[in-house]
Automatic annotation (TrEMBL):
This is Site-specific recombinase XerD. Belongs to the 'phage' integrase family. One of its GO terms (molecular function) is DNA binding. It comes from Chromatocurvus halotolerans. InterPro entries: CB, DNA_brk_join_enz, Integrase-like_cat_sf, Integrase_catalytic, Integrase_recombinase_N, Tyrosine_recombinase_XerCD. GO terms for biological process: DNA integration; DNA recombination. Residues 62-140 form the Core-binding (CB) domain. It holds the Pfam family Phage_integrase. PROSITE patterns: CB, TYR_RECOMBINASE. Keywords: DNA integration, DNA recombination, DNA-binding.
């Protein structure tokens, strides 16, 4: 029974817990073990860590998984939190148990090799590397322990891979657009028609809500203002409706009380679903959902729409307060967006795709 009264250890429900004051610092944590000897070793290690930190300024050793967990807990508000969580889950078998100071390009190479062997593009791998870099930078610059020491002395250089294998945007021709939209299920066709006429991202289209719609009676129309927490760049997103996008909105009005786009009364989680992929394979068309946004941007440029206006219509970060527009300014944006609608006159600017000449073509 004497060992049960070891200073600083308490048995609760069969598990030993540390409760001890050391050099002015209170330790209150579970050892996670029912073995007294193991618990005493863990207590001794924690006492030594505090002593070294307090007296010699030596940081306690923290593993990457601990830092990754803190990062996720502190950033649940981010629209991209699920992407960060996916990356960190994929990385965990490679660096999760490593001390923070041992995470660098060398220890990340196994992860890089596996992802490349799976056929993943460098851009995809870079997403994970950027997440590691962010966690390490926070550990070295922001997060501090009870002794005022940062979790990591300095963050190593995490280099992103070159994007020589990145897939280039694929803007649709009008003929390709007609073929694609006719082949898609009706609900996806409507969403894609809206996307290619507004430049919205996949998530913005899928999450679009009726309570984000704002009437503009002076222009006999409406716009949508997507809250910043639902937008990738964290800025409120003004969505201007040209005549095609407005027609799509009126076609689905009243189908659901909250969401604009639904399928049998349920929200659509992503345009890039099995229905989209099936049609793309059937048509043998090398297009991604994001290419619809590229198509809108290219058509705006081909129509001579100025850069600043294109940035607003595409929802790019520009530092402007997008909640303050006069009716004439909105009218100008709507007029610009209408310039990419396919008209009966056939004068809608076409996209000319320029390709590098192959050696054989150059010889001819």
């Amino acid at each position: 029974m004497g060992r049960n009264r070891s200073s600083g250890l308490r048995n609760r429900g069969g598990i030993w817990h540390i409760d001890k004051q050391v050099l002015g610092h209170r330790i209150q944590e579970s050892t996670g073990t029912s073995e007294l000897k193991t618990a005493e070793l863990m207590l001794a290690r924690r006492i030594e860590q505090i002593r070294q930190a307090s007296v010699f300024g030596i940081r306690p050793v923290r593993i990457f998984r601990e830092a990754a967990t803190r990062f996720l807990e502190e950033n649940t508000h981010l629209a991209t939190i699920h992407t960060y969580a996916f990356h960190l889950k994929e990385l965990d078998p490679y660096i999760g148990d490593l001390p923070l100071y041992q995470v660098h390009m060398g220890t990340l190479q196994g992860y890089i090799d596996r992802r490349q062997k799976e056929g993943k593009k460098n851009k995809t791998v870079n997403g994970a590397l950027a997440t590691v870099r962010r966690v390490l930078n926070l550990s070295a610059r922001l997060w501090r322990d009870e002794h005022g020491l940062t979790w990591l002395e300095s963050a190593p250089l995490i280099q992103l891979l070159p994007l020589h294998d990145a897939r280039r945007p694929y803007p649709l021709s009008w003929e390709e657009q007609h073929r694609l939209f006719r082949a898609l299920p009706d609900h996806l066709s409507r969403m894609c028609q809206f996307k290619v006429n507004t430049g919205c991202r996949d998530g913005e289209v899928c999450s679009l809500r009726w309570d984000w719609e704002i009437d503009v009676p002076e222009l006999d129309t409406s716009v949508f203002l997507i809250p910043g927490e639902k937008v990738k760049n964290r800025e409120d997103r003004l969505v201007v409706l040209n005549r095609v996008a407005k027609s799509v909105i009126e076609g689905v009005r009243g189908q659901h009380a909250e969401r604009v786009f639904t399928y049998y009364g349920r929200p659509v989680r992503s345009i890039n679903n099995n229905g989209w992929k099936s049609v793309r394979r059937k048509l043998n068309m090398p297009i991604r959902v994001h290419d619809l946004k590229h198509t809108f941007g290219r058509r705006l440029r081909a129509a001579g729409v100025p850069l600043e206006t294109r940035k607003i219509l595409l929802g790019h970060r520009n530092g402007d307060i997008t909640t303050h527009y006069s009716a004439p300014e909105l009218e100008e944006l709507i007029e610009a967006a209408n310039r990419v609608c396919e008209g009966k006159s056939g004068k809608t600017p076409a996209l000319v795709v320029l390709k590098h000449r192959t050696p054989s073509a150059a010889a001819r």
